Amino acid sequence: MNGIIAMESRMQRKLHVRFGGGNRADSRSSTTPTQLDETAGPNEAECPERILALLSPTQNHSALQWRRRCIRNLARPTAKLEDGMRIRFASPIKFTDGYEGQEFFVRKRGRKTALAISEHGSARYRVTNMARMAFSVVPQTKVHRTVF
User: Fold this and answer.
1) Tens place of pLDDT for every residue, the chain, 148 residues?
2) Residues 6+ apart with CB under 8 A from 142
3) Count of CB atoms situated within 10 Å of the CB of 89
4) What is the pTM of this model?
């Protein structure tokens, strides 16, 4: 999606959402974006709260479902991933090499995030849209060493 905006319909005196997204299927030009509104039931459900607050009430089933999905996404807790952090996904993830796992260590290199199987292992796996997936941070256990 290129953008989400709230627009006022002059004829109906209502605010509704309009999306500018990918290219139109019936257009030969790549400069003409597809435009649709919330009643079309878009997949995109990341509308900012400030825009949702502007919208007029509606009885349209698709629009109501879309608004509920947006509100659910806004309520989803987000954890800032830091290098070395141990995380556990709600369900196992299977990768293309056949490995299936649920707990990983976060490896950060600049803005890129990858997952490692062991604490000191190299990052081997990347997960698309990881921030949207259900996971929890595994608390670190402190090891007490006794010096004699």
Assistant:
1) 446 666 665 555 555 566 655 444 444 545 555 666 777 767 777 788 888 888 888 898 988 998 898 888 888 766 688 888 899 998 999 988 888 999 999 998 888 888 999 888 777 898 887 777 888 888 877 655 666 5
2) none
3) 17
4) 0.51
